[in-house]
Design a protein that fits this description.
3 helices
Amino acid sequence: MNKTPAGHLPNLVPQLDDNLIDLKSVRAGTGLSGSTIYKMMENKAFPQAIRLGKKCTRWRASEVSAWIKNLSAA
């Protein structure tokens, strides 16, 4: 599993594989706080996280990237 370095959310749209990224990377890439991300997930306004374990949550980088692109289009 690839991990995105802190402070960098890669543009994964052209890639065939879909990396999973942690909350720190999602926060860095979106500029949102963790609590805002989770509130937006509750309201279905942000991509849903994937729970991999009790203390392990990840997001599909392509979904987060697409969400960011949709903000630009709006």
